[in-house]
Every structure is written in structure tokens, then in C-alpha cells.
Write a structure and sequence with these properties.
mainly alpha, Helicase, Ruva Protein, domain 3, two-stranded antiparallel sheet, 2 strands, flat
């Protein structure tokens, strides 16, 4: 398996899709990187030469913030928002939606699938005998 930025990318997928397995690289950035290096995006990962893989590895690690470095930067940004006491920081701290969504309904995934009313429970009514 090819290893780029500490991630094993799949061998049997096209290279432009395989690069999206790296945190911080989406389809647009993947296509841009491949165009820059002159590699056909439709080629499979297993068909790439060792030189092409090393070129990809070099450009990704040198020019783009990916994986652990990107995760660390996001974590520090959220920590900074909490420390300065901004609205977004307090929403992060409370585990609520940050970008202005309503919370009366439709925020179950952020709140941890909390069901508070009696009629919205998961259990069905017991059968009559």
C-alpha cells in the first residue's frame, strides 16, 4: 500500500479518489495536485511508479496542511474561541450548534440524540391483551 502523510491510501481506487482519504484533501485539491504534477487522475494507485508517489508525497507534505497538523490547528482555533469568550466559543463548549441553526428541533446529532418529550421516545406502546 502507498503511504502518504501517514495514511495508507487504497490501491484499487483511482488516484484522485484515493488522495481524498487524507484528512484535509478533498476532490478539488486532489485534482489540482495531480494536474500540477502531470499525473492522470484516472490511473489506479497501484499503477503509479515509486517516483510519482514520492513526488505526490513531497508536494502534499511540503505545501499543504494535512492530517495531524490540520487537526491540531482546528483544535487550537476552537480553544482560542473558548478562551476569549466569544459566542462561537461558548457554543462549542456547551456542545450546541455553532453556526446559527435552530435548536428547538433538528440539533439532535450535535446534542447527542437527546429526546426530552414523552411522545418522542423510541419504545412502542405495549400490545393489548
Amino acid at each position: 500500500m502507498a503511504r502518504i502523510a501517514g495514511v495508507e491510501i487504497p490501491q484499487d481506487k483511482q488516484i484522485w479518489i484515493a488522495l481524498t482519504y487524507i484528512y484535509g484533501i478533498g476532490s478539488t485539491l486532489s485534482s489540482k495536485i495531480l494536474r500540477e504534477k502531470g499525473i492522470d487522475p484516472k490511473r489506479r494507485t497501484k499503477d503509479l511508479t515509486e517516483e510519482e508517489l514520492s513526488n505526490l508525497r513531497e508536494i502534499i507534505e511540503k505545501n499543504h496542511k494535512v492530517e495531524g497538523e490540520l487537526r491540531r490547528a482546528r483544535m487550537l482555533d476552537i480553544k482560542r474561541l473558548k478562551e476569549i469568550g466569544s459566542w462561537r466559543g461558548t457554543r462549542h463548549a456547551k456542545g450546541l450548534p455553532v453556526r446559527g441553526q435552530r435548536t428547538r428541533t433538528n440539533s439532535r446529532t450535535v446534542r447527542g440524540n437527546v429526546r426530552r418529550t414523552a411522545g418522542s421516545g423510541k419504545r412502542t406502546a405495549p400490545e393489548k391483551t
